[in-house]
Amino acid sequence: MRNEVQWERMFPDELEAAFENCPAVYFTYGLCEPHGPQNTVGLDALKAHAIACRTAQIHGGIVAPPDYWHIHETGTYANWAQQNVGEVRSWMTAMPAWQHFKNICYHVRAADALGFHAAIFLTGHYGPNWQDLKTLLEVLQPHFAMRLYGLPDFEANHIGFSNQGDGADHAGRVETSLLWALEPDCVDMSRMPDKDEPGPHFAMGGNAFDSDRRIGERMVNDEVTWLGNKMQELLEKYTQLNISDRQPVTFGKVEQIWTEQVKPVLNTFLTMQNSSEPPPEDSLWFHQWKIPEIE
Q1: Which residue segment(s) compose the domain that 151 sits in?
Q2: How far apart are the C-alpha atoms of 290 and 247, rounded to whole Å?
Q3: pTM, two decimal places
Q4: Omega into 12 within 30° of 0, i.e. cis?
Q5: Does 294 map to a domain?
């Protein structure tokens, strides 16, 4: 018997049955970007999507198609890339912060219009974007019946690595171990550089040599349990609201919310701030560094 939870891979009757069993949906985000020579570039979204799928298979719910277009190249992200990725072809699937957040508004609208009771928005991409995701959902929540919660996957990772509490890194032992457990074909430790070879090595974390697939599995299990509990909490909150009449939010209403509620605060988002110093002018990261004012 199929236990499919991926929205795009399900038949209509399977979607209906899954919805009746648990009217919850997971949205996952990441982008393609260098994650060391040992990991495929899609690590962020691959990780978040696989964790969401495992959660839905155990706790119920449906997982929306992953979104591989995310924030990079501007502001602090440009400075970080110049230092950690270097002057190489990056293979990034980056977009402006404001476009990413507007897309999320429509993701919320689509799920709410279908009648979902709760939604978790899980980003596998770090930097300050996850804090802005939480802010955005706080702005949107009063306009939707569906209960909303956004987080970076490391918020659900209380094990970290060897119980040291380091639940997040970039292409280091945490992320490499997680991807190794979730998508073993996407990690190749034979591609690791020699330990004394100077970097940067495509933004590889210095402790990536300590990666361990078995501990990756432990971290995955911890995140799945945390997310399942959080979704149950959101579903209970929806039930407590005793909502009797739900009207779908229109595209026009989303545009109104964006114009009147989101745009006035958008320039305060952390991902919309220019860092103090731009990358060197001869860097390929220089020209995208400055973030325009959104009026």
Answers
A1: 7-272
A2: 40
A3: 0.96
A4: no
A5: no
Per DSSP bridges, beta strands 70-71 and 62-63 are unpaired
Q: Is residue 28 part of a domain?
A: yes
Helix (H) or strand (E) holding 223: helix 213-241
How far lies 36's CA from each of 40, 84, 86, 172, 275, in Å?
8, 10, 12, 8, 24
* Residues of the chain predicted below pLDDT 50: 162-165
Give residue-wise pLDDT tens across range 43-72.
999 999 999 999 999 999 999 999 999 999
Type of residue at 284: L
Calpha distance 211→205 (Å, rounded): 10
Give the sheet arrangement for strand 147-152, strand by strand: 62-63, 24-29, 118-123, 147-152
φ, ψ for residue 134, nearest 5 deg:
-60, -45
Which tokens belong to 143? 């306009």
Rounded-to-integer distance, Cα 175 and Cα 211, Å: 8
Which structure tokens are listed for 87? 């002057």
CATH number of the domain at 12, please.
3.40.50.10310
Count of domains observed in the chain: 1
Report whether 182 contacts 216 (CB < 8 A). yes
CB 68 within 8 A of CB 49: no
d(CA 248, CA 260): 19
